[in-house]
Amino acid sequence: MQILENKTALITGGSKGIGYGIAAALMAQGMKVAITSRSQANANEAAAELNKIGKGEAIGIKADVRDFSSQTHAVEAVMKKWGRLDLLVANAGVGFFASIDDMTLEQWHETIDTNLTGVFYSLKAGMEGLKASKGYFISISSLAGTNFFVNGSAYNASKFGVTGFTQAAMLDLRKYGIRATTIMPGSVATYFNNHQPNEKDAWKIQIEDLGQMVVDLMHMHPRTLPSKIEVRPSMPA
């Protein structure tokens, strides 16, 4: 089993939802975690809550995955703070759901630029750090990355892209000893698309479940790689 204490992680979009759940699970293992948000206040607030866990250490960084220089800044902040990057989780994402008639150009570009290009920017910025640590790259795709649906053109395109990108990147990265996995969740109890998690979400995947999945991947022997993981509620509502 891999020892995670004092290893470091950078999680994009980590101030709430899936990213926060992953950060909390890693913190409980004693890891040092940097979370990003477009809002420095939100990043700081989430980091302060994470630091109450009592293990590890968390910092908040203002960064926008749509901007490569912003992602480079985030990685540099991690390296300056801790001197290494062991895990990069490309989690930041948005969703606009509309027909082609109603989808605006702005909504299309924000979806693709955040969900797909942002994953590329994050990995590109973190490559040298991951090479040095023989680290792990994890992208958060979706079951929408293999299953298309009405009004899903932009979101489906972005998540199909993330799934394909990560699987191809896995082939590029493994020669450096870097592992790569894409996690493809179904319904998760998060704030995604302006949803407010509530007691009616008990049937959904919980953010701590995905956090545990990432911990399990990190603990797995480096010789073994689950490169693509579909995860869905056991009993849908």
From TrEMBL:
Entry's Gene Ontology BP terms: monocarboxylic acid metabolic process
PANTHER family with a match to the protein in the record: 3-OXOACYL-(ACYL-CARRIER-PROTEIN) REDUCTASE, 3-OXOACYL-[ACYL-CARRIER-PROTEIN] REDUCTASE FABG
InterPro entries in the cross-refs: KR_dom, NAD(P)-bd_dom_sf, Sc_DH/Rdtase_CS, SDR, SDR_fam
Protein name stated in the entry: SDR family oxidoreductase
Pfam families documented for this protein: adh_short (PF00106)
Ketoreductase domain location: 7-189
Superkingdom as given in the UniProt entry: Bacteria
Recorded family membership: Belongs to the short-chain dehydrogenases/reductases (SDR) family.
